[in-house]
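pasting for ref
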Amino acid sequence: MEISGAESSITLQQSPAAVQNDPTGPEQKQLSPEEEAKLAKMKQRDQEVRSHEQAHLRAAGSLARGGPDFDLETGPDNKQYAVGGNVEIDTSKVEGDPQRTIEKARQIQKAALAPADPSSKDRNVAAEARRMELEAQKELKKLEQDQNALYSSGGASQPMEVSSLINVFA
């Protein structure tokens, strides 16, 4: 998790992967059977990681702070392959608005768990977002209770929910 200043962000990461770049020239050496096997694994992993990171990115929507980043490694064919990937997303609370914080926390959870096979870090991010959602729900409930108490003591005949108040003033 990366956190800086008043804003929070997380980096959803995938374990080692490969990203193939275009060859830089026509010269290519003959690969040994071991190198061919390693290259095949790197290419397969490339497909998995790209899909994994794209799932995070699509689900994160406007919370994403750019596209996927990859850590690169040179393969046996002298091309660059990613050995890790991540998508950074904003995980800060929406100050003063518990309802929007709840919605944001749900989107963070969706982004963290979007890939077919979420990593342990992805699951940890989802758990943190769930805690943020629960805290915001408690805050919203307290606001509603405070509003109901205010209207009850002020002689209002019918207590109103905070969400109703928001709709009235929106």
